[in-house]
Amino acid sequence: MQINGLHHVTAISGPARRNLDFYGRVLGLRLVKKTVNFDDPGTYHLYYGDADAAPGSILTFFPWDHAAPGRLGVGETQETVFRVPEGAIGFWTHRLVEQGVPHEAPVKRFGETVLSFRDPDGMRLALVGLPGVEAEPYWTDGGIGSENAIRGFHSVSLLLADAAPTAAILTDVFGFAEAAREGTLIRYAAEGTKVGGVVDLRVAGGFLPARQGAGSVHHIAFRAADDAAQDGMVRRLAENHGIRTTEQRDRNYFRSVYFREPGHVLFEIATDIPGFAVDEPAAELGRALKLPPGLEAHRAQIEAVLPALD
Ligand code: ZN
């Protein structure tokens, strides 16, 4: 059976230390991997997630000290949304006020309560309060109790000039189906997928194209159980949509292919295997700087240029 839903979301941020303070302390996510950008090893690649570093909970950042701010536009992820227990929205509203986090008043979207806010780089985030998620995996840090902790991704919304070509990929390749419409939003859901099982398409005219920078989502990744499942999706993209992906790249914790979908958002297909415990014990995720085998020989030089995180 195909596993559907989001695997991870990767964004660009300003200074790494500020990023870690916000996602680790303010939001209480677990730093599940501290490594470097394999294509630019002088910069970090930080991964946050739940206690198990499960696919569908993973938000990653390329932090650059002097990243210019991005500008939201069409062909880009507009908002990244986490799940929290239904009763936690009050706690979070209070916490965002207390921590000085810019946010909006909670609103109803598709009948659910949504609290939108921004990270220190202006990245658009939100929490959605859901019934019945209390028993699902979480991580608690920074004084956030289990009754309030984040339970992985709910969704991303994509800002598009035209929904149909992107929708065709979501439904034909990634196992999503149209679930609802509200205003300019069309909701796609992967049936039976609890975490990261929703993608909202927002059709918006009049926006300039996106300019990526700090606060921008660089790409979103969908799950494939293994290489064979990924290969099946790659073939479907080619045969039914005329889209070629990159060659598979080994990201150490998953194996990935990339393609730009018709609405210009960069999509990735990432395998669930081998996972984040491949190079350090599950209990110690995120504590030590981990490097892929090819970069281990350069550890001293890499550590010398990376900024301190504490
Ligand atoms: Zn990725």
Textual characterization of the structure:
- The N and C termini lie far apart (43 Å).
- It is globular, with a radius of gyration of 18 Å.
- Helices cover 18% and strands 36% of the residues.
- The protein is α+β, with helices and mostly antiparallel strands and 310 residues long.
- The protein contains six helices and 16 strands.
- An eight-stranded mixed sheet has the order 2-3-4-1-13-16-15-14.
- It has one domain: 2,3-Dihydroxybiphenyl 1,2-Dioxygenase, domain 1 (Roll), CATH 3.10.180.10.
- Bound molecules: zinc ion.
Record the SSE blueprint.
Layout: E1 6-13, H1 16-26, E2 30-37, E3 40-49, E4 58-63, E5 76-85, H2 89-98, E6 107-109, E7 112-118, E8 124-130, E9 153-160, H3 164-172, E10 176-182, E11 185-190, E12 198-203, E13 217-224, H4 227-241, E14 249-250, E15 254-260, E16 266-274, H5 293-296, H6 299-305
Parallel strand pairs: 1-4, 5-8, 9-12, 13-16
Antiparallel strand pairs: 1-13, 2-3, 3-4, 5-9, 6-7, 7-8, 10-11, 11-12, 14-15, 15-16
Residues 8, 10, 219, 221, 268 line the site of zinc ion.
Helix content: 10-25%
CATH class: Alpha Beta
Rg, nearest Å: 18 Å
Query: For the report, how would you describe the main beta sheet?
Result: 8 strands, mixed
What is the succession of H and E elements? Answer: EHEEEEHEEEEHEEEEHEEEHH
Mean pLDDT over the full residue set: 96
SS-based class: alpha+beta
Number of strands: 16
Classify the fold: give the CATH topology: 2,3-Dihydroxybiphenyl 1,2-Dioxygenase, domain 1
Large-scale geometry: globular
Low-confidence stretches: none
Bound molecules: zinc ion
- Termini separation: 43 Å
Number of helical runs?
6
